[in-house]
Amino acid sequence: MLNILFQLIAAFIGTISFSVLFSTPNKYLPQCGLIGAMGWGVYLLTLHLAGSSVAAIFAASTILTICSRYLARFYKVTTTLFLISGIFTLVPGAGIYYTAYYTIIGPAQTALYYGMLSLKTALAIGLGIGVAYSLPPKLFGWKSRN
Fold first, then answer.
1. What is the tens place of the pLDDT at every residue in 31-48?
2. How far apart (Å, rounded) are the C-alpha atoms in residues 36 and 134?
3. Which of 89, 117, 91 is nearest to 102 (CA)?
4. Rg (CA), the chain
5. C-alpha to C-alpha distance for 134 and 146, rounded to whole angstroms
6. Contact at 8 Å (CB) between 23 and 56?
7. Rounded CA gap, 22 and 97, in Å?
């Protein structure tokens, strides 16, 4: 339990650090950190329940995008302000690194393994965002134009 708490705190701090790197306005940094930590928490919970990292990434990116849309409506900013920062914890950076590393140094089978895992993760993130964006804007408080 303590390990999960440390992971959520690290996700919060890492997401804020990533947000600062991309010049997110300071008043939105705590919200970005919460979105990132929440996304990681959903990932850990779904990974525990489903046992599949790809399903966990899909669920986390879907929930993360839905929450980003709500916050964007609440603060009257673009969704990408929260989404890009929040998705940071789910991006397969290590998998991409190992793909490149084993492509150059190691056996091709290992490079292919990490490459396919990274591709599955990226597709799961994209599909999760797509599913969340397919929800009607009225659910998030947007009014239709006449």
1. 999 999 999 999 999 999
2. 21
3. 117
4. 17
5. 21
6. no
7. 21
Distance CA 58, CA 51 (A): 13
SS (H, E, C) the chain: CHHHHHHHHHHHHHHHHHHHHCCCCHHHHHHHHHHHHHHHHHHHHHHHHHCCHHHHHHHHHHHHHHHHHHHHHHHCCCHHHHHHHHHHHCCCHHHHHHHHHHHHCCCHHHHHHHHHHHHHHHHHHHHHHHHHHCCCHHHHCCCCCC
Helix axes of 79-86 and 2-21: crossing angle, nearest 10 degrees: 130
This prediction's pTM: 0.89
Residue written as token pair 């008043």: 27
